[in-house]
């Protein structure tokens, strides 16, 4: 059953019986429960003696044995079974007040022993099965915890190694006199740091999906910080959409490259650099997949005349175009209706949940 889901009365009873079967009780408590079961079942059998027809000498003793097996222990249940059998034999099997070994008494006691043995076998087996299941769950929980720790440590080390490479590139850029080479090293450093931060976001091996709005907000905020841009106003709007890891990684890299490109080339003549990021979900699916559109708009001078995305030598746009291909998507850049540049990525997502809704503004 899913954790947190409401439980029915039957589920709660079964859960309680399972806990009772696996509980460990002191010898004193076992003796107390056994004596109580014998006394109550015997008193109840005497009280019902006149109301019951002949042939029910063990009627109240069967529940006593079963309850003792569940709430006390195997030994206590066997003791109650033997004691109740002797009481029924003496007081309620013909000839009464006697332990004469008649054929009727032998037959009745034989059936009683068979039923008690069956109860003992099934209840003991159920308790053992529950113990084995609990042990397996503990082992699985321990393995999952160890896996999570190893995954987090691996992510941490990879991210640290990438950060080290970025730091080396930064130091190298400070020693290069050629401006073109220096800018290339700085761009590479920024790109590697962005990948490092993206790696940190994917920190949990059990997290199968990421929320698009939160994911893009965090990743692109990191990109702005890493780029070291001065006055940048970043706005992210995204429909409620779950992203699987194999979509989130290339989408994050594409968005990062396009935002870095907007920071570099989309600054207006004066005022802050305004970048608007939007992720919209199409109302209808295609071939069982969800159609989504990512747009990144800046308020800069716009694209130069004759710009061709396929022929550009910008490393960032080349990387974005290649990852768009990996998503089976289409990337395009165009002039905005009011100026600036609009980058648009159309792609498809395999739906993992029916989570769709109005945009979340961040």
Automatic annotation (TrEMBL):
<keyword id="KW-0902">Two-component regulatory system</keyword>
<keyword id="KW-0418">Kinase</keyword>
<dbReference type="Pfam" id="PF07568">
    <property type="entry name" value="HisKA_2"/>
</dbReference>
<feature type="transmembrane region" description="Helical">
    <location>
        <begin position="31"/>
        <end position="48"/>
    </location>
</feature>
<keyword id="KW-0547">Nucleotide-binding</keyword>
<keyword id="KW-0812">Transmembrane</keyword>
<dbReference type="Pfam" id="PF13493">
    <property type="entry name" value="DUF4118"/>
</dbReference>
<keyword id="KW-1133">Transmembrane helix</keyword>
<dbReference type="GO" id="GO:0005524">
    <property type="term" value="F:ATP binding"/>
</dbReference>
<protein>
    <submittedName>
        <fullName>DUF4118 domain-containing protein</fullName>
    </submittedName>
</protein>
<keyword id="KW-0808">Transferase</keyword>
<dbReference type="GO" id="GO:0016301">
    <property type="term" value="F:kinase activity"/>
</dbReference>
<dbReference type="InterPro" id="IPR005467">
    <property type="entry name" value="His_kinase_dom"/>
</dbReference>
<dbReference type="GO" id="GO:0000160">
    <property type="term" value="P:phosphorelay signal transduction system"/>
</dbReference>
<dbReference type="InterPro" id="IPR038318">
    <property type="entry name" value="KdpD_sf"/>
</dbReference>
<keyword id="KW-0067">ATP-binding</keyword>
<dbReference type="InterPro" id="IPR011495">
    <property type="entry name" value="Sig_transdc_His_kin_sub2_dim/P"/>
</dbReference>
<feature type="transmembrane region" description="Helical">
    <location>
        <begin position="76"/>
        <end position="93"/>
    </location>
</feature>
<feature type="transmembrane region" description="Helical">
    <location>
        <begin position="105"/>
        <end position="130"/>
    </location>
</feature>
<dbReference type="InterPro" id="IPR003594">
    <property type="entry name" value="HATPase_dom"/>
</dbReference>
<dbReference type="InterPro" id="IPR025201">
    <property type="entry name" value="KdpD_TM"/>
</dbReference>
<dbReference type="InterPro" id="IPR036890">
    <property type="entry name" value="HATPase_C_sf"/>
</dbReference>
<dbReference type="Pfam" id="PF02518">
    <property type="entry name" value="HATPase_c"/>
</dbReference>
<keyword id="KW-0597">Phosphoprotein</keyword>
<feature type="domain" description="Histidine kinase">
    <location>
        <begin position="153"/>
        <end position="351"/>
    </location>
</feature>
<keyword id="KW-0472">Membrane</keyword>
<dbReference type="GO" id="GO:0016020">
    <property type="term" value="C:membrane"/>
</dbReference>
């Amino acid at each position: 059953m899913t954790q947190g889901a409401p439980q029915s009365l039957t589920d709660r009873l079964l859960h309680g019986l399972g806990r009772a079967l696996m509980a460990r009780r002191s010898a004193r408590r076992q003796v107390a429960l056994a004596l109580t079961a014998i006394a109550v079942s015997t008193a109840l059998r005497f009280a019902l003696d006149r109301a019951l027809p002949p042939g029910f000498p063990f009627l109240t003793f069967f529940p006593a044995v079963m309850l003792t097996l569940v709430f006390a222990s195997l030994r206590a249940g066997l003791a109650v079974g033997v004691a109740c059998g002797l009481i029924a034999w003496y007081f309620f099997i013909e000839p009464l007040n006697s332990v004469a070994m008649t054929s009727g008494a032998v037959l009745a006691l034989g059936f009683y022993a068979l039923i008690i043995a069956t109860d003992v076998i099934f209840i003991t087996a159920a308790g053992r099965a529950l113990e084995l299941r609990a042990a397996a769950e503990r082992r699985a929980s321990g393995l999952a915890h160890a896996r999570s720790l190893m995954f987090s440590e691996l992510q941490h080390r990879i991210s640290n190694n990438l950060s080290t490479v970025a730091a080396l590139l930064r130091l190298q850029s400070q020693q290069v006199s050629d401006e073109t080479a220096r800018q290339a090293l700085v761009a590479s450093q920024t790109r590697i740091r962005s990948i490092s931060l993206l790696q940190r976001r994917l920190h949990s091996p059990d997290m199968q999906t990421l929320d698009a709005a939160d994911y893009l907000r965090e990743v692109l905020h990191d990109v702005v910080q890493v780029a070291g841009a001065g006055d940048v106003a970043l706005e992210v709007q995204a429909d409620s959409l779950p992203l699987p890891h194999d979509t989130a990684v290339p989408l994050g890299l594409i968005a990062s490259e396009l935002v870095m490109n907007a920071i570099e080339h989309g600054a207006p003549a004066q005022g802050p650099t305004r970048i608007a990021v939007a992720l919209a979900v199409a109302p209808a699916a295609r071939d069982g997949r969800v159609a989504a559109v990512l747009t990144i708009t800046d308020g800069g001078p716009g694209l130069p005349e004759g710009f061709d995305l396929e022929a550009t030598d910008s490393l960032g746009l080349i990387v974005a175009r290649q990852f768009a291909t990996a998503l089976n998507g289409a990337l395009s850049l165009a002039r905005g209706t009011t100026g600036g540049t609009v980058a648009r990525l159309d792609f498809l997502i395999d739906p993992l949940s029916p989570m769709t809704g109005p945009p979340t503004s961040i």
